[in-house]
Amino acid sequence: MKIALNITKTIQDLLLGFMPEGTASILAMVIIALIYLAIFSVAGLMLVLVERKVAAWFQLRIGPNRVGPWGLLQTMADALKLVSKELTGTVKADMFLYNLAPYFVIVSSLMALAVFPFTQEFQAFDINIGIFFLIAISSIGVIGILLGGYASNNKFALIGAMRSGVQTISYELSVGLSLLTMILITGSLQLSEIVEVQKNGWLIVQGHIPAVIAFMIYMIAGTAETNRAPFDMVEAESELGAGFHTEYSGMKFAYFFLAEFINMFIIAAVAATVFFGGWLSPFGITDSIPWLGVFWFLGKTFALVFLMMWFRWTFPRLRVDQLLTLEWKYLLPLNLLNIVLMALIVWLGLTIQL
Amino acid sequence: MSYFGDIYKGIKTLLSGMSVTGKVFLNNKNNAITQQYPDNRETLKMFDRFRGEVVMPHNENNEHRCTGCQKCEIACPNGTIEIIWDRQVDPETGKKKKMIDQHIYHLGMCTMCGLCIEACPTDAILWAQNYENSVFDRTSLTKVLNQPGSKIMPGVED
């Protein structure tokens, strides 16, 4: 297995100058992990702010505008408030699982961030089964939700957790299969390789009709997997209070909240990498300046994040039976048909190469 | 083929819904309906149908349109309006007639139902659009709507 540690390598080489190799590699990993943690906890908070602002604009409101210029520090203030709050819980909760659940959720969503190629060299962990790793990691998060709902000794939380189990297990299939459709073109699971293939045109252009269908299915299933509206039955406020995190408060609640937004970023980032060329600029206009790739990657990701917010503030919440009908009767058969179509197109060489 | 028809219809309706919200998102800069209240209390104007409190408008000669018919007092479901009246000699015609002394309005009891204003045959009382009605003392919620020394506008009773 060949693992290229590109930014890890830079830091490791720096550290090798004054310490033995084993220590240097471990320290380099810790430093990278801390950098990622810092960046993405801030990015998660920023996404919360963006969500609130976008929601306000959709509803003809103004949104948070008191803390800092244009309310930019609002979520920072919220996070500080949550840190200082008391951690409450129910009396007969299973305390071990109850305390463990938020860490499952947040750790699984942070782990997934490691494999994204932000730009040509900026990737913490270029594993050769990148997409598979992402799909596997994103399904671990549901264990945290199930544990949280099950352990907190609350009926609403239990119902929310069970709904989450149903939903995530169903929609995993569509996410996996729609990404598999695109893998047929790239022939590789490695994310840097997938981006490399797209130098001849983004995959949504290369794969034309089946790629567009796969993208639509991916966005629907991805929205469902992050438990966001219109698929937010896990925490349907009008039915279940706050769903699986009804009994959580303070920082543990904040972990769930942050994980939801980081998951949204992950889903959008996977879509940007697989369908829209990751850090590649359109028509290669900035190929000579590699670090600009970060901006292209983040720009595409935030455009897709905005699309998910647009879904959220447009569509009403589905019932459980409607949710399962959509997945098992529509998305899954269409997805299987789509894979066959894509396989035919790749076999006959009908892909569009720019 | 209704299976594929359903899919087509579903996608079409979803996209039309998104276009509606998308247009709202793009055009929201001019008509954000949130008022940043304490900051703009000088310029903030309530809309026409806002029910602040009941007032009795007077013209420049200190004349109102209330005939003292008491229809508002009867229409009020919770006794918010009290009219103190007596029969006095009209100085112009020399006949005795009903004139109001005080039109008393208890804002503290008013539920803003508007029945008195609908009942008024001469449009003597109206809704005001003021909105800062809190006071420190309950007695100041009892208001006398007709100004002291005011009299009925000539021609209202004809």
TrEMBL record, chain A:
Pfam families (UniProt xref): NADHdh (PF00146)
Keywords of the record, alphabetical order, are: Cell membrane, Membrane, NAD, Quinone, Translocase, Transmembrane, Transmembrane helix, Ubiquinone
Offer one example of a GO biological process linked to this entry: aerobic respiration
Q: Where are the transmembrane segments?
A: 26-50, 95-115, 127-148, 169-189, 201-221, 253-277, 289-310, 330-350
Query: What class does this enzyme belong to in the EC scheme?
Result: translocase
Per the entry, what this protein does is: NDH-1 shuttles electrons from NADH, via FMN and iron-sulfur (Fe-S) centers, to quinones in the respiratory chain. The immediate electron acceptor for the enzyme in this species is believed to be ubiquinone. Couples the redox reaction to proton translocation (for every two electrons transferred, four hydrogen ions are translocated across the cytoplasmic membrane), and thus conserves the redox energy in a proton gradient. This subunit may bind ubiquinone.
Q: Tell me the NCBIfam families matching this sequence.
A: PRK06076.1-2
Family annotation (HAMAP family): NDH1_NuoH
Question: What name goes with this protein?
Answer: NADH-quinone oxidoreductase subunit H
Q: From what organism does this protein derive?
A: Lutibacter agarilyticus
UniProtKB/TrEMBL annotation, chain B:
Q: Does the keyword Membrane apply?
A: yes
The segment(s) forming the 4Fe-4S ferredoxin-type domain are 57-86, 101-130
UniProt keyword annotation of Metal-binding present: yes
Keyword list (alphabetical) reads: 4Fe-4S, Cell membrane, Iron, Iron-sulfur, Membrane, Metal-binding, NAD, Quinone, Repeat, Translocase, Ubiquinone
An example Gene Ontology molecular-function term = 4 iron, 4 sulfur cluster binding
Quote the Pfam families the UniProt record gives: Fer4_7
Q: Which GO terms describe its cellular component?
A: membrane
**SUPFAM superfamilies, per the entry:** 4Fe-4S ferredoxins
Q: What is this protein called?
A: NADH-quinone oxidoreductase subunit I
